[in-house]
Amino acid sequence: MKDDAFEALTVETLPARLSAIPEIATRVGGAPSGWKVREVGDGNLNLVFIVEGAKETVIVKQALPYVRLVGDSWPLPLKRSFFEYHALTRQQARAPGTVPALHYFDETQALIVMEFLSPHIILRRALIEGRQLPKIGRDLGLFMARTLFRGSDLSMKASERKADLALFADNVELCDITENLVFSDPYFEAPMNRHTPGLDGLVKELRADRDLKVAAQRMKHAFATRAETLVHGDLHSGSVMVTDDETKVIDPEFAFYGPMAFDVGMLLANYWMAYFAQRGHEGDESRNAMRAYLLGVVDETWHVFRDEFARLWRTERNGILYQAALYEDQDDGLAAEQALNHVIHDLWTDMLGFAGIEMHRRILGLAHNADFEEIADETLHATCEAAALKFGRHVTVNRNTIQSLAELDALAQALDQRKLS
Amino acid sequence: MKDDAFEALTVETLPARLSAIPEIATRVGGAPSGWKVREVGDGNLNLVFIVEGAKETVIVKQALPYVRLVGDSWPLPLKRSFFEYHALTRQQARAPGTVPALHYFDETQALIVMEFLSPHIILRRALIEGRQLPKIGRDLGLFMARTLFRGSDLSMKASERKADLALFADNVELCDITENLVFSDPYFEAPMNRHTPGLDGLVKELRADRDLKVAAQRMKHAFATRAETLVHGDLHSGSVMVTDDETKVIDPEFAFYGPMAFDVGMLLANYWMAYFAQRGHEGDESRNAMRAYLLGVVDETWHVFRDEFARLWRTERNGILYQAALYEDQDDGLAAEQALNHVIHDLWTDMLGFAGIEMHRRILGLAHNADFEEIADETLHATCEAAALKFGRHVTVNRNTIQSLAELDALAQALDQRKLS
């Protein structure tokens, strides 16, 4: 199959085509005619098949040469599959066990065969249902610290990092999506935008807010130019699969060398949005516990990330930055600790900047979150989103002066009580 | 010649080999046996020939697979010639007339044939001789604003910039030289360092200075990760050729995508060092005028750079950053002006950070400046360098709080009076 021209798989053609790959035929097991194949892609971009054989069930993910949701009027290159595959191999090496096991990759067919995760569900779905996952704060805090630290000049050989940077620099089209849909479109009347009726006044206010518009473009500037590490690039609660015991990160096709705090900000933004969506389930008493849980997850994620980053700084800092040789013979290591504090300060500031933007683009832009979309009452829907918009504005514009998550908890709680105005 | 394996040219072999290239044979003119060939490379890395024919004189620059100054114990890839050639073509397109005209490039032979500049001399030499060049402030301010702005996401198509970023990301070895020799070695007892006797106390103090060591590594972090634009990468007064009427920038083999203010900081640092070297010519009355001239050049360079950058921001901002569509319909353009102020603030801060480091590495590291080296009296030599070291420490550590060049003029003048202590 490898040398053929690209051809999209279907439920019907998949068994014959996949069974021509010996290692996959053996892994799945049994006669291909007996394989159960379902297409389950619920994302916007790709085909996703579950293939159940006599021995094993696997996932087959195939990119299409356009955005699936929109059709061939919006072309999107197949090479995103190449970047997804290479990002997965790097994440697996840097944070073992945090991504699905990879079985096979075919670049021409833009196809990845990987581990079928079961009984995992998408984290966003779990949070909407009010489930309190006990391990996500710790697991994703560690995932981010390890992948982001180990993919940077703090850890990698400079020549290897520069070669990798060049490789991922070709992921232009997916970066372009983020650059436009996340950082720009929400802040003016772009054609693909939409927002909930009832938000017109607030939307108008935000789009006239000079400080916000400048801050958003400052963050875009950082996104486009600061090639600090290999980021996942789309680390929201829809890119995480969970059980109570296990957390797996999927879908890194937006991966590129970008600012370290981008993934952190995007993930925390999605927890904050889940928090503001709780009010949409008014009357359900368990939702108060869910609110406390979500603020706790934000806190745990950040602190696990920060502490693991500091641990790696102290034990694995073998790259060209802040070299131990410069510091170790003096000051009992105080200079290296001072530098670490500066770096963490910047991560914090950037995280806040990116988080607010992510909250805005999910309410003002093209891609909305199910957390809010599934709130049936339109006024309640708008009320929840208004609180998130105001919170997002605050954290992005004031990112340089916000001191602690406790102060953001207080703001979130206050905004969560307000009427739509 | 193109398909042959690399072979270093000599004065003897050059005519026969170069005359095999029809466009060069025609350009130089006359019988190759009559060409006058001189080898004049006084830099550390390459061969440079002047070839004088019947019609035209040209420069032939050829890289060697090692550092010329050291020999083949320090290998350095020939591909630096490829980066030099491509940087020159981009500089020529972005700031026409500021670099030598290019006649021919042979990648395998690591060879560039270009315009012979006459009667130009190296700017550093001119400044040491006490010559006041009237046009350098304006010419180099414009050169930097135009090349740095037009090579960034403020101007280029994102896909073209990312492809170019990937191309130059392979310039690993020359970046590695800067990363080590500029940003790290000066701040600890690295093997290749040397400094003037008499500075031992101050050197020890600086290498124990925690704030300085942290600041230096913060700037290195910026250098290694912030791929903002195609920088020249080695823009000191030895990389500029001048007459009273013309200013040409040469030798961009260190070019890569880095922070916008790197070139600006390095250039201003070399003016400040020229200033502190004036005291080495004590007794020569004309040197007071030279001091005033040099501080004036710093001022003019910065302000021309800043004003031209602002002009390009207002008239050529066609890239993905701070898009006009976001701003133009509101506020009478105030948001775009506010963003410009933020960007210029960062350029200023970064410029100061890089300038101080450049001053340190020229006194504490491997590559020293003729400005200081040619001061015969050892105590005077050390006294001049001590003032530069203290000035460099101040601007790098206090880069976030320095408001104006006037305040730095006052500091420079005060340090210039001090005894060595």
From TrEMBL, chains A, B:
Domain Aminoglycoside phosphotransferase: 37-273
GO molecular function, one term: ATP binding
Leader sequence segment: none
InterPro entries: Aminoglycoside_PTrfase (IPR002575), Kinase-like_dom_sf (IPR011009), Methylthioribose_kinase (IPR009212)
UniProt keyword annotations, A-Z: ATP-binding, Kinase, Nucleotide-binding, Transferase
EC nos: 2.7.1.100
Gene Ontology biological process: methionine biosynthetic process
Family designation: Belongs to the methylthioribose kinase family.
Subunit structure: Homodimer.
UniProt-listed NCBIfam families: MTRK (TIGR01767)
Protein's UniProt name: S-methyl-5-thioribose kinase
Organism: Nitratireductor pacificus pht-3B
Organism lineage string: Bacteria, Pseudomonadati, Pseudomonadota, Alphaproteobacteria, Hyphomicrobiales
Gene behind the chain: mtnK
